[in-house]
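User: Predict the complex.
Assistant: Input components as received:
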Amino acid sequence: MAPTIKLQKAAPLKVSCQQCSLSNLCLPLAVDEQDLDRLENVIEQGRIYSRGEYVFEQNSPFRSCIAVRSGAIKTTMVTENGDEQVTGFYLPGELVGLDSLSSSKYACSAKALDRTSVCELPADQLEELSHKLPGLQHHFFHLMSQEIQNSHQLALMLSKRTAEERIASLLLSLSSRFQRRRLSPTHFQLPMARNDIANFLGLAVETVSRVFTRFQQQRLLTARGREVELLDVNALRQIAQEASDDKPCF
Amino acid sequence: MAPTIKLQKAAPLKVSCQQCSLSNLCLPLAVDEQDLDRLENVIEQGRIYSRGEYVFEQNSPFRSCIAVRSGAIKTTMVTENGDEQVTGFYLPGELVGLDSLSSSKYACSAKALDRTSVCELPADQLEELSHKLPGLQHHFFHLMSQEIQNSHQLALMLSKRTAEERIASLLLSLSSRFQRRRLSPTHFQLPMARNDIANFLGLAVETVSRVFTRFQQQRLLTARGREVELLDVNALRQIAQEASDDKPCF
DNA sequence: CGCAATCTTGAACACCCTCAAGCATGGTGG
DNA sequence: CCACCATGCTTGAGGGTGTTCAAGATTGCG
């Protein structure tokens, strides 16, 4: 129960969803002016969290869904016997908290992996608004079913794939998500620590480390700390057992 | 691409949702008469599938969500390189296909594990109707976010739990789902084969078998084929690492 | 600069998988 | 009705992938 320290509550720069560079990823609505106004009245913008700070905590009252604007967020679930499972990594343009819509409490915790700014969609207004805007309802159905698929893909990986396959998959997933944002798909900073990768993929930290060095020996990539450059994407795809022209898993 | 053999398309006995014994599990709507009528006009009832038959197949056009009335269904995903992952088991009162709402094709296949009757909620009418009935929209948000949580719980199990823990969890999950339907929580038929259990839990069939015999030696349960009797639920709970008064995982 | 956190590397062990064979079960056909 | 075969389940032995434990290297930050 670490107290969440809010260093920066203040003065977010107000940006409308229309102007937001992520609008096509986050809430790509085919709606008219009036609908957009409604949406923007509901969304609270610009909260900034610093690295390590909790955006929300498991079992605390479900207030809102979170859209990442910059930075990165990891979500974790804690079991009764105390061990933690990382359930996802969320980059700009992605929505956190969809798994909590079912109850009055957050189903997981969300922690900023970096200096991170977010927009909030308050829970109480979310259902009402998506009732008024069929496009929004559709989008939420879409996002949630996507999240289910992603989670199933993750389960498949965890139950059937080797350490190398899992890590190759994760790297490729990150790669394509960076690409979506017009960033380099081959040269980027990992938003998370080795520890988080290990936990997420169901491996020991040591294994993750070993696989990274093995990949470097094979000239598939170079990595110094969190900085990664993918040298042979196709080889990684083969390892990940993805068809080359296929969508990423998660 | 095995052709689906439809032995029984005929003459389902028409039962209204109000009369259905599963109504409180399936679509527990706090809606008025008129709304229920609307719902029932949309739902197609009583298709019956025999054991092994596909209810729908992955990548075929998404037609409808499926509510199980009797029997049981397993869902599976196939990857490009051909191996199959069981993503869930669905018992009467549970909804199949929520992970496909995002696209025009089914994200997984659904196969009857037994003689199984279902109700269908056609895709095209589903969004429209849940727009008209806020209660239905709420319920779908609820179900989908529950499904995400379940899948996260599964991921946690696959990445962190031993074979014994996983199997204990599955048995307890089935137990409480039988109990919900006013059936014995300690004495029931497994709807699925060992093979399916193994695949679902990310284990080899042999491991599943060995754990079952070990559990029997410890007098935790008796099993003959698919018939199972749980003898020491609390011990199983401890193994599964559940708090005794807690909700089941999946 | 020095401490803490993160990451890497090595050696031994454990859990589960693979392979292989034997055993029930149930459905089919002679 | 029983033999037969297919399928599903169980049991055993051996080996591999990843974990655990332990120590050292590197990085980041006050």
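Confidence is low (pLDDT under 50) at residues 1-12, 244-249 of chain A.
Let me know if you want any component modeled separately.
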